[in-house]
Write a structure and sequence with these properties.
about 200 residues, alpha+beta
Length: about 200
Amino acid sequence: MTKPNFTFKVIFLSIFCLLGLSSVFAQAEPRVQSEPSYEVMLQILVGSNSGEQKSGAPANLSAVTKNLRNRIPFANYNLTTTYLHRVANTGNLEIKNVTSGDMKSAAAETPVFSEWSIGQLKNSPTDAANQSAIQITNFRFGQRIPVQSANGVLNYESVGLNLQRLNVPENAPTVIGSLSSQNPSEMAFLVLTVRRAEN
């Protein structure tokens, strides 16, 4: 019987080792998981004592309006604006637009310039009650509203709020601030809902 060639043995062992190493490296390579995306909904709810009958608040804000009525008993709570956007985990969001205004102003036909932003939205570990939370490094909401002076001159004034380091529960409408109006019997409430996007 002839013995296998030494060169053939070396080649065979080299191929075998390479195949084994490639298999090990393939198993050790970590799987890259994409960051989750979130739907961010900002709703502006206006409480007032006017007798005007409006659309009211949607079903998803029933718990919010019930809680507000116990603390700030306005006669009516009406939804005026809804913003819906999508952002990835650790992402930022900035919106600027023109609206007709969420509250009555001295110049009702004059446009209102709105802008709001979220800086670094990210999920946080669940708490002891297994409740997921969303951390927001910075939230800013602002409007430039027309104000008419006694002599009829129209000027734009800036109103808004800026929050640093905000936590909100996931998928639960949360009041994060309020803004007063020129009308003492009216106030706007900012309601933020963040939920994981389905696709």
